[in-house]
Amino acid sequence: MTPSTVKTVGLKSNTQLPASITYSIHIMADPRIKTIKIQTGVIRRLTKDKISYEKESEIQTGKVQKYKEEGQEEHYVKKQEEVLQESKSMVFDCQRRLLKAFNDFKAILDSESDLSENEDYINALQVMEDAKPHLPDFGKN
Name one GO molecular function term (predicted). Predict the structure, then answer.
């Protein structure tokens, strides 16, 4: 590799650096936006995980029922029931984590309402709205 001339802060001008080294100066974005982006991703991921475990649980329930009807070996049916219970517990765990993340993020968004015109803030509100039906006991009161 041939060295290239790069002007960087703190180095003499025309300092020779290997081409593989790249220095860039980033203007710091509002750290609140970064937090909103991260928390939006957390809510989105937990919602997807919960949906995935619910589907897995439904499939496993069908398998267990099918194996019982077919008269499969008792040990094999019990193992499949254990897998089913694990899937159900993961749904519960995802709901619990989603509820905590949802409440924490809602507090953040409420405190940062001055960013309400920001695209990431608006996207976060939509993700929160999409997650509401997946919260435990939502709309059952």
Answer: beta-tubulin binding
Q: How do the domains of the chain map onto residue ranges?
A: 31-134
Alpha helices in 112-140 (DSSP H): 119-131
**127-133: long-range contacts (C-beta < 8 A, 24 or more apart)?**
127/40, 127/43, 127/44, 127/47, 128/43, 128/102, 130/47, 131/43, 131/44, 131/46, 131/47, 131/98, 131/102, 132/102
pLDDT in tens, 34-58: 999 999 999 999 999 999 999 999 9
pLDDT at residue 20 in the model? 55
Q: Which architecture does CATH list for 31-134?
A: Up-down Bundle (1.20)
Partners of residue 95 on adjacent β-strands: none
Structure tokens given for 4: 């290239």
